[in-house]
Amino acid sequence: MKLIIAAVMVLSLTALLFIIFRKKLGFQWLTLFGTHLVLSALGVYVINFSGLISELYIPLNPMTVGTVMMLGLPGVALLVALKLIVI
């Protein structure tokens, strides 16, 4: 089973690299991704340590940073609302 999973991962990585270099995207997408990653983590960090809401702490993990990366500032608002309402 591990061999099958490893083969699928290698095949997926090969296909992804083929697509990236076939369309001549280069490494520009990596810079954009890194910028979004840093800004997303910074947004969650600012919410955690700003002191505006004292009981609020959003964990800084890949899931929360990924949510903020995809949704932007509305993602931060979504996480704050979920934390205040649901949890």
From TrEMBL:
Keyword Transmembrane found: yes
Record field: transmembrane: 32-53, 65-86
InterPro entries recorded: BofA
Protein keywords: Membrane, Transmembrane, Transmembrane helix
Protein name (database record): Pro-sigmaK processing inhibitor BofA
Species this protein is from: Paenibacillus algicola
